[in-house]
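Batch manifest line 319
LIGAND: 2-oxoglutaric acid
JOB: complex structure
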Amino acid sequence: MSYELTELHRESRMGGLGTEMAREIRRIDLSDFAARRDEITEQVWNAAVEIGFFQVVAHGIDLADVREAFATAERFFALPDATKARYPLRKGRNAGWESLSQVRPSVGTPDQKESFQITRPHMDGLWPSDEFRTTLLRFEAQCRDLAMKLLSCFATRLGFDADFFARAHDPSDPGYRSTLRLLHYFAVPPDATGLWRAGAHTDFDCLTLLFQRDGQSGLQVCPGRERDAGTWTPVEASDDAVTCNIGDMLMRWSDDLLPSNFHRVKSPGPGEDRGPRQSIAFFAQANADVVIEGPAGRYPPITAEEYLRQRIAANYRGT
Ligand SMILES: O=C(O)CCC(=O)C(=O)O
Ligand SMILES: [Fe+2]
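JOB STATUS: finished
ARTIFACT:
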């Protein structure tokens, strides 16, 4: 397969097992954001530049809301496949349900998971119930607010105005492309080996917020400078922290100042819990017709739509 984007060349080389190394993933306290904006900006910028991953706490989304979103997802995933198949993923539209269909260029096997994606302008006929819709649209809006808060910090450091990224992700625009993705990784049979819950990849978007559950670990990150050595650091899952990472779109937009780093979800090893695992990701992806162009012009301008089209084409079967 030949890939047009340099990001994809990177991804096709990252499938190996590598080694593990403990390293601090910073926890940044967002309380009193308006008053502490400059201090928080400094902290998120440094963590993003150094590791590309960080966690935020006191982030303003109530734990009860996070748990309600997880419970709603869990109830949906418990339905028979034949029922879930009434809401099929619309390829290229990041909306609907898929199972075992995402093949990462790094490993070539399907991620051992199912997911339901919500991209607001693409949801006609895809809502399983009113309750599901109400709960998750509300949660999506909370995630967006948090993502825009963090992106406003990056905007000012890059020399854009504070609302630059909020305009680029305006939810009232039919070209809105940010996505909430509910993820369910299957329980792993005792004899299963060699499969990944999520193969090594970078995210396509500007900024990802990842909600995980206490004790459901498995996420590992490989900061850019260790890419060749393949040294992976576990990111502890916890209910109160939101794990954040920079995606490829913001890496481009920042002329590579902010790194989009490889990460993956490993399958449980010997002696580890082989039960199912849940997570919820919010991908802040710029609206379709927004042009991505960094302050220093390092890459040719490309619309967000064209950029995402190329990334999705390389990641799903049958494209
Ligand atoms: O489930 C996780 O912890 C990570 C998921 C992820 O990296 C993704 O969906 O892009
Ligand atoms: Fe990811």
